Amino acid sequence: MSLEQLTSQLSKSFAANNYAECLKLLPQIKLLLVEQNLLVPSLTTAANPSDLAITRSILEIGALAAINSEDLNAFSSYITLLKPFYDLTNLPDSPNKNKLLSLYLLLLLTQGDLALFHIELERLANFGLSVAELEKDQYFAIPIKFEKWIIDGDFYKVYELLSSKHSFPCKEFNLFEKELLDSIRLTIATNIESSYTSLPLENLKLLLFLKSLDDVKSYIDQMGWFVDNSEVHFDKRSSAIDDEINDEKQILKNALTYAKEMESIV
């Protein structure tokens, strides 16, 4: 089939939410784009905005099909391919640009890659989008808000928003709920291990936003901790700086106090 025929079939499959079919068609389409020097913007293709816009749309379908199929590696690959197209000044902005780049920022948060998260924000700033402006965008506001809460140790705010059936600007944001909560739990668990020798079972349940004691026990087994008389005991990790331990304890104390307050309200 020709590139035009395959692209038409891709669009129909995507409109029907047949993401598996989209991912089947895309490798062949990308090969044809390579043959026509369209997959990566260059000096020879920059003079043809129409072809570049079509290629960008194809890659956006690939990114959305991948994320809806929960293929995060494929999603990251499509974002890498899309970035040069989003940087072109001779193309009008895509309506999918902010959504896809925001989803990529959320992915970085779930992976705990705060360094790359900030690099991506700085990259956007280089194209005239300040953080203050990004915070006003319905898409970018979500990962920026989450990142600030994570840095400040306000983990309960992230949990509260994710578990409140919040109406996000696109359905794909909901796909990151489990991954983001798992990432936050691991961060909290790591801080707990380095700051305490033990904690009451009920306190741990609140700190890790777990719904039942069975969930707590499952997490304890996963982390290699043990329970004795309703106290959870951790492997004490050595810390080079006592001040860091105290800071972590204060963050956890604040988080626990806030969690208890919210639970009493509910």
UniProtKB/TrEMBL annotation:
The keyword Transferase does not apply. It comes from Ogataea haglerorum. It holds the Pfam family CSN8_PSD8_EIF3K. This is PCI domain-containing protein. Belongs to the proteasome subunit S14 family. PANTHER family: 26S PROTEASOME NON-ATPASE REGULATORY SUBUNIT 8. Keywords: Proteasome. Residues 70-250 form the PCI domain.
